[in-house]
Amino acid sequence: MRTLITVAVVSLLALPPTATRRQTNPYGTIVGHSWIHQVTVGETWLTIGARVGVDPQVLAARNGRSSHVALRPGDVLGIDNRHIAPDVETNGILINVPQRMLFHYWDGAVRAGYPVAIGQPGWPTPVGLFSVVEVETAPTWDVPVSIQNEMRRAGKPIVTQVPPGPTNPLGQYWIRLSFGTIGIHGTSAPSSIYRFATHGCIRLHPDDIEDLFSYIRLGELGEIAYQPVLVAFDGTTVYLEVHGDPYRRGGHPLSMAMELLDDAGLSQRVDAAEVARVVRQAEGVAIPLEMRR
User: Fold this and answer.
1) Between β-strands 141-142 and 29-31, what pairing exists: parallel, antiparallel or unpaired?
2) What are phi and psi of 272, to 5 degrees?
3) pLDDT digits (tens, 9 = 90+) for 133-159
């Protein structure tokens, strides 16, 4: 990937992963983009992957490198964090568990897409429709009994409440959903984003939750979905995005991909062997497919 150094070098802040590219798509919208990033002091495969919403192993492999070899300041990386935002008919929030992405729909379009941390398989994030029932800044974390029990089993001191501050796992913003104690919040551990790492909540980078929070109101509707395979078409290019099945609920990914393409009337316009390759690699980013002529 060092040949990409001829392209203009930009920072993550100059091209934030929340930026979106609006398209008129009948079957999903592409968010994110491709750019060149120069590594700064303290950055690792994990921290960059968490910020842009790309698995560190995929990010390294696409740059012809290994995630086991540390990055150095000044290294140049090509980053492609394109994802497919599913087509929806209403404004609000959509969280896709396998994708580890939260999309905010506003004024009939995808306003932003954020990488998130989702519930680990032993503490799955619930799936279904929800409404926002509470919004709070500088929240106090009332530790659920289930997590207190986990602390007890691990031999750790039992904490029942964490006041606002830099060590609060909820960060600066809390959006409680109509799933009991489940909510959307910030974090004191940004490198945990884009992982299955929570006890069911949806965790965002501090900058992203601040942006989202400014748009959210009580009673806002949303959905948590479970869709490991996604398809989009922008009128010229077909995109396929494939993720793993962390909660073992998905089904056969190749069958899902072909069914989605067929439902969109696109299965005869792409090469089946290429679809199978993308499914097999399951890189978790939107891959443009070669179109048949």
Assistant:
1) unpaired
2) -60, -35
3) 999 999 988 888 888 888 888 888 888
CB under 8 Å to 155, separation ≥6 — which residues?
A: none
Give the strand pairing for 29-31 and 221-225: unpaired
Q: What is the 3-state secondary structure (H, E, C) of 182-195?
A: CEEECCCCHHHCCC
**What are the tens digits of pLDDT across the range 168-185?**
989 999 999 999 889 999
Topology of domain 2-85, per CATH? Answer: Membrane-bound Lytic Murein Transglycosylase D; Chain A (3.10.350)
Is 92-225 in the same CATH topology as 2-85? no
Where residue 3 falls among pLDDT bands split at 50, 70, 90?
A: very low
Residue 78 and residue 152: Cα distance in Å, rounded? 44
Structure tokens at 81: 């964090």
In terms of CATH, what superfamily is 92-225?
A: L,D-transpeptidase catalytic domain-like (2.40.440.10)
Annotated domain spans of the chain: 2-85, 92-225, 229-289
